[in-house]
Amino acid sequence: MSVVESVASEQLSEPKMPPGVLTEGPVVEAKFRDSYISFAIMVGGSVAALVWAFWQGIGWVEVSVFAGTFIMSTIGIGFMHRYFVHRSFRCGPVMRTIFAALATMAVQGSILKWVSNHRRHHLHSDRPGDVHSPYYDGGGNPYTSFAKGMTHAQGGWVWDRETTDASYYAKDILADPIAMFFTRTRWYWYALSALIIPGAIGYSFGGVRTMIGCILFAGLFRSYLMTMATSLVNSVCHSDGRWGYRRFETHDGTTNELVTTLLTFGEGLHNNHHRFPRDAYISHAWYEVDINGLIILGLGKLGLVHDIFAAGGAGRQRAADAGLGEPAPAAVGNAFEGDDLRAPGT
Questions:
Q1: Fewest Cβ atoms closer than 10 Å to its Cβ: which of 82, 143, 214, 310?
Q2: How remote is the C-alpha of 235 from its chain's centroid?
Q3: CA dihedral 100, 197, 260, 262 (to 10 degrees)
Q4: Hey, which residues does 142 pair with through a beta bridge?
Q5: Alpha carbon distances (Å) from 205 to 193, 212, 221
Q6: pLDDT tens digits for 248-301?
Q7: Which residues are in the Fatty acid desaturase domain (predicted)?
Q8: Spatial CB neighbours of 113, under 8 Å, sequence gap ≥ 6
Q9: Among candidates 165, 187, 164, 184, which has minimal Cα distance to 176?
Q10: Residue 312: which of 335, 341, 285, 292 has the closest Cα?
């Protein structure tokens, strides 16, 4: 019996849906509206990008801008995850503003929504109430088909009526003026990331034709591919060891998968992360490449961030080697147990 199957057998007498989940009201309707608009633009733009590539071709400018914006978005999601969700380190308002801009420009939802969903995921990982588990649907009903569950985790969960209540999971974000500014103005930052920056670079290097190619290929298509890469963490990295490997025995199906790890700059080390959820650096072996974690350690070395959290063995050693002071004590479990979700401005 797998870890997830053994946990599922213990869930039979529990209510399917825990607190902090909404099924009606303006927040639910807003979620669907944002999802329809975002996916229509990204999917439509991706189809147009492929048609354009076969019809007009793409050159070094489009490829270079695609690579640059993909890297920027991947790092942005790393900051979204390790700073805004887990508070793996501390920083001042200038760096927090930069992190918020990069996180929002990844075009994966507002800071408020992303943080709320991810904390709910940790609190109920692969149990009823998990926002994007491959083992339970949005209503807490178990999947009998692994393929259906993986489809749900890869993106189908966005269309679940059950919606995370930010007032339950993200009070610190609601009280953070910087995070809330970027949440309210998210569509402007999406446009900057997917349209204005790629288009401006394309136009400056090759005129209107290259501008169109950059918008389609490095803007819209990149946003869709980036979303799918991040979603592999929800699906492949919760496969209970079917793909990848499990370094730690956790009470869920989390898995480390190295291809996903490379695509997401370290986020695919998901079993490590669920064992030490607040760690800024989550590699525990030389072949576990955690680029986002190394960036955070580098920023710490430069004095741009501080109080870097390191509970796991490799993370503690990396922090010590970087001369970043004593690592914090271990935090094991979900996103809230032992966590110090510091007030805005820290």
A1: 143
A2: 13
A3: -100
A4: 136
A5: 18, 12, 20
A6: 999 999 999 999 999 999 999 999 999 999 999 999 999 999 999 999 999 999
A7: 63-278
A8: 31, 164, 166, 183
A9: 184
A10: 285
